[in-house]
Amino acid sequence: MPLHDRILGHFKASAQAKLATADALAPHIEQAARLMVHSLAEGGKILACGNGGSAADAQRFAAKMVNRFEQERPGLAALALTSDPSTLTSIANDYAYEQVFARQVKVLGHAGDLLLAISTSGNSPSVLRAVAAAHARGMPVIALTGRSGGGLAEQMQHDDVLLCVPAESTARIQEIHLLVIHCLCDAVDSVLLGVEE
């Protein structure tokens, strides 16, 4: 297959995957955004975690909250648990990599806060441990995952929100995760700034 056609194929597959999941995900994205708004309005903060590309998504989300998305507004309390190499490597070295997020949640997370847990497969041990730590702290969880949801789907409790992209391709799942993060940022801003219609 010519390279040009392969490139066009990626664009088409991405667009098709997004359209195929839009109706199913939209109500859950709205529920997640309202959960975020409630936490932030009550003085809570959002902790975000993930590995690899999901770590980058966690950092992107936190940056858009602390700084801004597309509208001017005061900063919102969010922290990516992926951003401090000294903390990550000391926990991984002294304990185990599976503890790198959970240990931070135990220290930084409180009832009223929220955890955004991102895992393409839903089976990342470090993210699963973070969810367990969040639940132990009385924190609701928004899980952003793919395929069948994996272990993350099994950990969800009554106040949690599962945002599962029902695709098999890692690339397609991660592309939709980025769109979901942008939808969450826009929805939070729309509610907080009173522009929701």
Descriptive notes:
- The protein is α/β, with parallel strands linked by helices and 197 residues long.
- The chain has one domain: 3-Layer(aba) Sandwich (Rossmann fold), CATH 3.40.50.10490.
- Helices cover 56% and strands 12% of the residues.
- The protein has a 5-stranded parallel beta sheet with strand order 2-1-3-4-5, with helices on both faces.
- Strand 1, helix 2 and strand 2 form a beta-alpha-beta unit.
- Helix 2 runs parallel beside helix 7.
- The relative contact order is 0.18.
- The mean pLDDT is 96.
Write a concise keyword list for the protein shown above:
single chain, 197 residues, alpha/beta, Rossmann fold, 7 helices, 5 strands, 56% helix
Beta-strand percent range: 5-15%
Order of helices and strands: HEHEHHEHEHEH
CATH architecture: 3-Layer(aba) Sandwich
CATH C-level label: Alpha Beta
Strand order of the largest sheet: 2-1-3-4-5
For the secondary structure, the number of strands is 5
* Low-pLDDT segments, ≥5 res: none
Radius of gyration: 17 Å
Query: How far apart are the termini?
Result: 47 Å
Number of helices: 7
Q: In this structure, how is the largest beta sheet organized?
A: 5 strands, parallel
Short overview:
This protein has 197 residues and is α/β, with parallel strands linked by helices. The chain contains seven helices and five strands. It has a five-stranded parallel β-sheet with strand order 2-1-3-4-5, sandwiched between helices.
Give the arrangement of secondary structure elements.
Elements: H1 3-41, E1 46-49, H2 53-66, E2 78-80, H3 85-94, H4 102-108, E3 114-118, H5 125-136, E4 141-146, H6 150-155, E5 161-165, H7 170-192
